Amino acid sequence: MKALLNRNDLSDTLADTFVTQAISRIERTLRLPSMEKQVQYNISGTTSFITVPTDFLEIISLYHGNTSLSRVPLTELLEFSEGGETGTPKFFCREIAKLLIHPKPTSGQIKMNYYGSFPAMNADTDENALAISSPDIIIYGALSYAADHFIDERGPLYEQKYQTFYTELKEQADLSELSGTVQAIRPTYSYED
After folding, report:
1. CA–CA separation, 93 vs 71, rounded Å?
2. Which of 32, 52, 53, 162 is the most buried (most CB within 10 A)?
3. Beta-strand (E) ranges in 45-177?
């Protein structure tokens, strides 16, 4: 990034800031298979919530055993919970850093698939999945921030290249969800003989 910007007044600290800003921007809007993670919660005793991981960005799915939980608004979940019902959970909602669940499970395992942030890169030699597979989007995202900082006329070019790489990654992620031999069209209606 420093070589492409080609400025004598760009410190390592400032360059690191631009890289961090670029990665944060990517994490806010882009969802890639390399961001998918899973966490398992072993339930032993009645519980009404689970805590989301510190790298949590967005939930993909939540299930208890073979039961997928449906997301409902907080007000609805609070109404359901008034009776203190226990059993296999069917509903959840997020409240700050917790996922409230209802009915309250007393045993079993809850699994959450989610999008998580990339591990931080603190040293120049550190890499994460995004830096390995798509360094160009990080570089041009950082250059876009640097151009704003230095009021550099190349800013629109950097932003255009960032958007090009963003679109390519988004399309690749979308295609990975919709391609392959395991895909099948499900009928709208099912008729029994």
Report:
1. 5
2. 162
3. 49-51, 56-64, 67-68, 70-71, 91-95, 98-102, 107-116
Whether the full predicted model's pTM is greater than 0.90, yes or no, is: no
The 67-68 sheet, strands edge to edge: 36-44, 107-116, 56-64, 67-68
Domain ranges of the chain: 2-33+126-173, 36-116
Tokens of 108: 């079993």
First to last CA, the chain: 65
What's the pLDDT tens digit per position in 91-129? Answer: 999 999 999 999 999 999 999 999 999 999 988 888 999
Per-residue CA distances from 93 to 31, 82, 89, 138 (Å):
21, 15, 12, 33
pLDDT one-digit tens code per residue, 162-182: 999 999 999 999 988 776 655
CA distance 22 to 41: 32
- Please give the share of the chain, as a percent, with pLDDT higher than 90: 77
Distance CA 177, CA 60 (A): 13
- In degrees rounded to 5, what are phi and psi of residue 191? -115, 130
Alpha carbon distance 15, 29 (integer Å): 22
* CA 31 centroid distance within chain: 6
- Three-class SS state of 111: strand
Please give the biggest Cα pair distance in the chain: 77
